[in-house]
Amino acid sequence: MRSGYLIIIILLASCSTIVPPKMYITGEKTLTESQVVGDYKEIEKDAWAISSVETHVQREASKNRSAIGDEEIFKAMKIREYHADVIREYKSEGVIGEANNGLVAYRPVEEYETDTDLRRIVRLVVEEENSARTTIFRRTLVLGGKASPTPFDIRTFGEKFAEEQRDAALEGDWIQNTSGNWFTKR
């Protein structure tokens, strides 16, 4: 059986030529690292010139993008994405809980109560997260056909979102039930 493989390998080796790809040695950084860091000197010799003038095609694509997506929702989702890991940490520490209105809430913990800087930072994160969530609630209602959502509409939407958040909460996370009572998920 081994001799059969050897014959196939010899045949393949004699029939094909393996040509390695063209490589550039750039010193300490790869081309990708240079792009990430912002040092384009090593890339410039192979770079293409890109026009910064807006063309008719770009204007049309821009119009279509705004029709398809909502810039406010996109920005709010980016804020939520930015804070996701920190909020997860705060939830694990018991400092943040999921309230019954679809927003997150600061939960007093001794370490944060005694350190005003820590408390200020967590409250800022809570404020930014809640602002982003509220924007998403409001813009989703607008995109759904509700021209001017009322505070009641937004609160109702938030309560439905809170149900999803309670279901998605991890064991040990603080969540608030519809009656307003706080408990840790088991």
Fraction in helix: 55-70%
Name the overall outline: globular
H-E string? HHHHEEHHHEE
Query: Treating each run of at least 4 consecutive H or I residues as one helix, how many helices?
Result: 7
Instruction: Identify the quaternary structure here.
Output: single chain
> Cα distance, first to last residue?
59 Å
What strand order characterises the main sheet?
Answer: 2-1-3-4
Briefly note the structural class of the backbone.
Answer: alpha+beta
The biggest beta sheet, please? 4 strands, mixed
Radius of gyration: 27 Å
Strand content: 5-15%
Low-confidence stretches: 1-13, 40-52, 64-68
Number of strands: 4
Q: Report mean pLDDT, rounded to a whole number.
A: 78
Describe this structure in words.
α4 (71-93) runs antiparallel to α6 (116-143) and α6 (116-143) crosses α7 (151-168). The protein has 186 residues and is α+β, with helices and mostly antiparallel strands. It is globular, with a radius of gyration of 27 Å. A hairpin with a 5-residue loop joins β1 (96-98) and β2 (104-106). The longest helix is centred in the C-terminal third of the chain and has 28 residues, at 116-143. The protein has a four-stranded mixed β-sheet with strand order 2-1-3-4. It has a domain at 68-184. The chain has helices spanning 2-15, 31-37, 56-68, 71-93, 110-114, 116-143, 151-168; strands at 96-98, 104-106, 174-176, 182-184. The N and C termini lie far apart (59 Å).
